[in-house]
Every structure is written in structure tokens, then in C-alpha cells.
Amino acid sequence: PHRPFGCLTYSLIPKERRNFKLNPTAERGIMLGYENNFSSYCIFKLEERNVVRVCDIKFDKFTFPGTTEEEEISKIFDAPSCDHQVEKGGPEEIPKAPRDILSQISTDNILSVNRRGNSVIMPLTQQTHPFGRKLLKKRSQKYMITNSG
């Protein structure tokens, strides 16, 4: 399937380049074209501001980051509105949480739940194939947790 030129792309960042598990897994880019009989794509990476050839990529076919219409819309949303402006006469007061917040928490609504319930551990004597045929018992004994109630 052909992808629209200029659409937003997300190219995979390999695990080797991700040092921490919460780091981004993809980089944003703009689709510039195809290479090698459509097996790879030519992408302009927005953060690095360079052109690369990539294979592992996802497309947002409805977002075009290079259009002027999108820039004008973002300017409208970023501009402060006259209706919402507040006169700054005195020092701004920033709300703060009370220091003794722990004393305000009631333990009446906290439930104590045994997550395992009434579980019983019993040896697994035979395994059944999903289609009903019984399989041989494995050499090492296996155990299965079942709920008794």
C-alpha cells in the first residue's frame, strides 16, 4: 500500500539505542519518498533534522506536519484569549497541599483483600490437549493452583 508523501511517520528506535525502558520507542518524521522498490522509506526526522532511510515505520496518514494550515491552527490555540486573561495586580498565590495530609486520609474505605482467595495447590497428574487427547505425564512433577471456592 502506498503512503501519502509528507505524512507524519513514527520510526522504530532499536533496543540497542534505548538505554532506559521508559525512553521513547519511536521518532517522529515526515515521509519524503520510497527507496529500493518500496522496501524502505526516505524519512526526514523532525528532532534530528536529517534525512534517513528506514524500514520499520508506522504512518499517520491523516497528519501532515509541514502544512501551513496546521501551523496557523497551532498559533490560534497557543495565543492567549482576551476573555481568559486575568489582571495581575498582586502576587500570584500558588495552591499548596496541606502538610498534614496523612491525617486527613480515612482508612474506613480501604479494603483488605486476600488476593489469592482460597487457593489450593494440588499436583497436576495429567495434561489434556486442547482437542481432548491426553498427553503423557512429564518427568518433572508439575503443580497447578486452583480456587476451591
Automatic annotation (TrEMBL):
Q: Where is the Retroviral polymerase SH3-like domain?
A: 7-70
Q: Which domain of life is it from?
A: Eukaryota
Q: Which InterPro entries match?
A: SH3_retrovirus
Q: Name one Pfam family in it.
A: SH3_retrovirus
Record's protein name:
DEHA2D06061p protein
